[in-house]
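Purpose: get a first structural picture of the assembly so the mutagenesis plan has something to point at.
Setup: three entries, given in the order below. No constraints added.
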Amino acid sequence: MRWGAITVIVAVLLGVSGCGSSGVTNDRLNRAVAPTFANLYVLQQSLRGRKVAAASLNPRADCGRGGPETADSGAGNDWSCTVTWFNTGPNIAVTASYQVHVQTNGCYTADGDGPADLNGRQLITAADGATVTNPLWQFDGCFDTT
Amino acid sequence: MTAVAVAARPAVRGGAWVVYRWELIKLTRQVKAQFVMGLCLLAPFLFVVALNAQSNVPQDTLFGRWVHDTGFSIPLVVLGFAGQWALPAVTSVVAGDIFACEDRYGTWKTILTRSRSRSQIFTGKALAAMTFSVLTTVSLALSSLAAGVLLVGRQPMIGLSGTLLAPGHSAVLVLTSWATVLLPVLGFTGLGLLLSVASRNSVVGVGGPVVIGLVMQLVSLVNAPPIVRMLLLTTPFGAWHGLFTAEPYYGPLVQGAVVSVVYFAVCVGGAYALLRRRDVTGS
Amino acid sequence: MDNARPAIEARDLAKRFEETVAVAGVDLRVGPGRVHGLVGPNGAGKTTLLTMLLGLVRPDAGSIQIFGRDERRLDGVGGFVESPRFYPYLSGRRNLALLADLDGGDAATRIEESLRVAGLLDQAGAKAGGYSVGMRQRLGIAAALLRDPKLLILDEPASGLDPAGMRDMRALLARLAAEGTTVLLSSHDMDEVEDLCDDVTIMRTGRVVFDGSMEQLREKAPDPAYRLSTSDDDKAVTLAGPGLEVRADGDGLLVHAQQDRLDTYVIALGRAGVAVRRLELESSALTALFFRLTEEDA
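Result (structure tokens, whole complex):
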């Protein structure tokens, strides 16, 4: 009876764990950072008085970890992402860089690494003259590691 | 030599509820329970006042950067702290002692020679500990939400995908997030109950879950295979993150719920088995 | 002995704790309405036996029936083992209220009466943590009486009580017995048991060495023992007549005799020129028997 219960518990846990998949991968990070950046870009531009449609941005993120020898998976503070999106037209691609610290639970903090006027400064001037926090300077997000 | 099964004392009508009621009465007279509950109601307000008095923001907690911008970040920041050590500590203050105190006072022989079976006494005490855990968690949730809304405001919040969340929606998500941690809270309650019964010692019962929680936190910071993270009871405390993305994900919530329930069942089942078989000698 | 169903019928009970055998093959039969004493030196297994009867400890072997019922319900049974313990932060009355609720039924209506019978009405409002040992014993009795018991199982009920308290306790137990309550009480003092009990079971290292009524025990009892010291102990030993047992031990002479033979002996000593310097009762007949049963090797 006791062994039966233990077997059931182990089976349930294994079933729920989706065993094999490893938590933090560059694929998941890419798919999380890109839309987050895009939404915050829209927000930043609206603060500066410019209306941008999120759908037109077509963002893509390319994240990697450390040097070429380091595997692109696992938590760490040596991740970096390059975000590419289409700013003023479907053919003009613009990039921005971020240093990203990813935790084991799938939550990350991205620190703006250029260009300076986009994500280099913490404070920006809004269209109405007020000084506001630059939403693209540093942002947090989370993704599913299961 | 034939072994004799100790027959369970037949249930008296009213059963475990009488035990449950008296355990709650005894709890309300205990200074430590009053203190912890008071803390849960008051601490968030003190926290917000302290935050408002200066311009820095908590750096390493999710939503910490927004504590001056929207009141809805407050309950989430408190949730981030609380999951790390405060909630296990709060629950084990009662759960870790509720069985061990009978050993401390020597009163097992007094209450086990009445008309309640051991099952009823176990159930009443376990329910009382669980009630305390739920009440303190709910109090902390509501008071931190109130502190945020009253002292910072009801501004819309930026979610984890960069989208803006309306105040009403934010409030719902905040309350839902707190609701999801009730399961790991009950898991830690079960752990406290098990340690309380097994060790017969309040220090182990109260301190044990806290230490175990801290160790689990440390393990979860390391790059281990996902199965290891999944087996930690502290992981479900962060499962609510998936509610705040533009496309919510529920994987961690489902896993966390299953793991919490398994911990609870194993711990409570183990505690019950130990109590049923225990020999209560006179001393 | 009547043929009515016994209050307690325990057969072949055994219990061992790790390496120690506490109880080994004990039978116990307590007749209804009787006061039954369970006597033995410390470590004889009395408390272990009582904890098994009260359902606190699982026997390793054997069977227990209380009022003929196998399930060992504690209906109509009250009592305590070793010194009774209560919640120190609740008053005596509140402790009883808690226990009455755990009992269910109409136990709550008996709280004041139990306190009165136990002599605790005045102190019932004080926190139990401040009670003396004697007051705790009384509260234990009150707690047992809440259940309106037909059977009282009490472990050393007079321990920790001053002489007045002991007297009150004995009077209370005698009254309860007179009203028909069956009482099983344990003690390590044979004299205390002699006053109160109808039947007695004597235990030694986990086994029963005597089981029967007080009359049967008295018949088996040797003569009482007296401590004698004289001006010439050696000569006194030689003067011992029939029906008299005189032994020298480290502290003078030990004389086992009935009263009349002792009188004859003392007179004979005087006539022979041996002066009696000290003569006092060392142990009663029953206590002497008790020591013989529980200390000397069989």
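The mean pLDDT of chain C is 87.
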